[in-house]
Amino acid sequence: MTEVFDFSNHQIIDILVKGPNGKDYVLREASGDTVAKFNNARARCAKYQDGGLAGVEGLGDLEPMLVSMCMFEDKGDGTPDPHKPIKGNLLRAWPGPIVKALFDKAAEISELDSDKDLSSLRKQRDAIDKQIKQIEEDQAKNAPRSSETGLNLPGNEE
User: Among 46, 32, 19, 18, which Cα is nearest to 122's?
Assistant: First the structure.
C-alpha cells in the first residue's frame, strides 16, 4: 500500500493581534518560503573558523525578521491582507517583550525548531556547565580524606 500525506484539510493558523499602536494585525503561520528564509538567516548567524564555532552575529535580527514575514495588517474581518505585511522598522519600534512574544508564537504555530537556535543552545550549555561545576564541588567537599578511610595508606601511618 502506498503511503499518502493528505493535507487537504490543513487549516492555516491565523491569530488576531492587537498592536501597541491600537491597530489590528494578523499573525499567520509561516509559509514554506518564510521558513526557508528564516532558517537561512539563522544559519548565517553562526561564524565558523578552524572547523569550530568562532562566534555568532545577527541573532537579534531574527525575531523581527520572522514576525515581519508572518504578520500582516488585518483586512477588518480577522483575515490578513497579504499585500500589507508589517515592516521590520515598525516592529523594532515596539517594546522588546511584545516582539519576543510575537516571535515565540510565530515559531510555535509554524513549528519552527526555535528552541534549537544558538542562543537557546548556549543557555542550555551554560546551565549544564553550572550543574557539572556544582556536582564537582559537592563531590570534592564530600570526598573522604585518607585519614577518614581507616586504611593504612602511605603517609597515613600512626
Answer: 46
Domain residue extents for the chain: 1-114, 117-158
pTM of whole model > 0.85?
Answer: no
What CATH code would you report for 1-114?
A: 3.30.2220
Query: At which residue does the C-alpha cell 508572518 appear?
Result: 70
Asked if 62 and 92 count as a contact pair (C-beta separation under 8 A), the reply is no
Count CB atoms within 10 A of the CB of residue 155: 7
What are the residue ranges of helices labelled H in the chain?
A: 32-44, 62-70, 88-93, 96-109, 118-142
Rounded mean pLDDT of 65-75?
A: 95
pLDDT digits (tens, 9 = 90+) for 72-99: 999 999 899 989 999 989 999 999 999 9
Average pLDDT rounded to a whole number, residues 50-78? 88
Residue with the three cell numbers 564530600 = 142
Residues 24 and 16 sit within 8 Å (Cβ to Cβ): yes
